[in-house]
Amino acid sequence: MSKLKEIQAPIRTEMNLFDSKFRDALRSSVPLLDTIMRYIVKRKGKQIRPMFVFLSAHVSGSFNDSVYRAASLIELLHTATLVHDDVVDDSNERRGFFSINALWKNKIAVLVGDFLLSRGLLLSIEHNDIELLRITSEAVKLMSEGELLQIEKARRLDIKEEVYFEIIRRKTASLISSCCACGAQAAGASPEDVERMKLFGEKIGIAFQIKDDLFDYDNSKLIGKPTGIDIKEQKMTLPLIYALSNADSATKRRIIRIVKNNNNDPEKVNEVIEFVHSGSGIRYAESKMMEYAEGALKILDHFPDSVYKESIRNLVMFTIERKF
Q: Which helix (H) or strand (E) holds 214?
């Protein structure tokens, strides 16, 4: 975490003030809802998304109060999608804590997600932040489409590389893209610079997701996440897609059969992990991740040098070098 704190240094004041503004946005007069909101605040993660909002604002425009609203809107949206995702995935844990649905059941979790979404909508409308609302609504649409596209394609386990990129562009990259676009928009950047920051965020989002997918095949035991989860959930990610595309037909059939029928057998899951390593799936995915990260950094060249630009560069590197 010390690396993140170092990156955060130029926006530490903004991040501290954001914490209290975000807590205010979550308050409710319904005791049960207020209890759940306090639980959500206590277990917040690395807060990478608000960092992208604040740094994008500083890099591309003039920092003002609407930037805080942009960060709150993004965080409300992100938290709502996590709560709903845990219901969809029937997951009982999130960041080492019990999920909302594990503690309060699915019905309440769905309503909590709806409450968070509505708070974001109201926050925007109350301050006439219509353009921020447009950017984030587009992200919600893309995230839903990405999730449904993944479900549709996963049934056949024959996802091609271009479909994988389309899924993660919508499902993951759209939110980080909206972080950077909202930061620039709230800071009064030109439409061209808002578009630049949007593309910057999309490229980072794709690199971020590839990094997450690589964790599943890391057998070094040095990372903070369990391996083999995607295989157990029959998710076809880039390392496996690439390795399969270069395998002979008999090997391809055998690996797909394991993913389909033996995904809960630790030995068989390890067999798939070994296959991906020997099939250059890891090397290829790492090279694609770097390609997207370098593309993002190139976009930053357009903006003047500053401590904020240096921090957002370091945040890009953090997303692809992180161990968790």
A: helix 191-215
What are 98's strand-pairing partners? Answer: 93
The CATH number fitting domain 2-321, selected from 3.40.50.2000, 1.10.600.10, 1.10.357.10, 1.10.150.20:
1.10.600.10
Joined tokens for residue 316: 């890009």
Q: N- to C-terminal Cα distance for the chain?
A: 10
Distances (CA, A) of 60 to 9, 51, 57, 173, 207: 18, 14, 5, 20, 22
pTM equals: 0.89
Of 289, 285, 311, 288, the C-alpha closest to 300 is 311
CA atoms 130, 200, 2, 9: torsion sign = negative
Residue position matching structure tokens 């590839």: 210
Q: Left if phi > 0, otherwise alpha if psi is -120 to 50, otherwise beta: which for 188?
A: left
Nearest residue to 49 (alpha-carbon basis) of 151, 155, 172: 172
CA distance 19 to 236: 37
| 1-44 tens-digit pLDDT | 568 888 999 999 999 899 888 888 888 888 898 888 888 887 77
